[in-house]
Amino acid sequence: KILVLNNDLMERTIIQQVLQYNKHEIIPAGNSETAMQLLQEGDIRFVIADRSTTDIDEKEFIKRVRDAQPPYYVYILLIASKVSDTDVTTPRTGADDYLRKPIVPLELKSRIYIGERILGLGDNLVQAKDALEHTALFDPLTNMLNQKAFLNLSRGELERARRTLAPLSLIALDINNFNEI
Predict the structure, then answer these.
(1) Which of 45, 62, 86, 123 is least enclosed, having the fewest CB within 10 Å?
(2) What is the pTM of this model?
(3) 46 C-beta neighbours (distance < 10 Å), count
(4) Could you please report the per-residue DSSP string of 15-37?
(5) What is the pLDDT of residues 56-112, one digit of tens each?
(6) 102 upstream amide cis, omega within 30 of 0
């Protein structure tokens, strides 16, 4: 699914043709508020937004997307008539990629392919991290906690038991002292 935030009919038609040719689902948005609602509702991971034909304040929009912290990364391709050096050199506050106007279908297709590859690599990285975490805790042959994980878990449980039983031992001491008197 690709969210398209663009109000120019000609550009939107070009984007739509390129995306449909590559079998993508297009979700149009007329303004940044609608786009944010769609991003929060669905599993949209790719956004194409036009800087000049919408109400978008791109830095604020991108900040809102990043601050929402979806469970997956959202790739943002910004279409602009002019791209400055600061746009490209400050990726943390800007888009992931930029496309200059007029839109050339081959370049758009290439930028979408690059974005898909980056999203795919990110997914692979998350899967590899999860597999490593599982391998670090479980023995691959028995699929049970390995010795190090078992000892760490045991220490934690032992400490929790000490904290729970400490007040009970104080009560027992008071009872013992009471009996002596």
Answers:
(1) 86
(2) 0.70
(3) 22
(4) HHHHHHHTTPPEEEESSHHHHHH
(5) 777 888 888 888 888 889 999 998 887 665 555 555 557 899 888 888 899 999 999
(6) yes
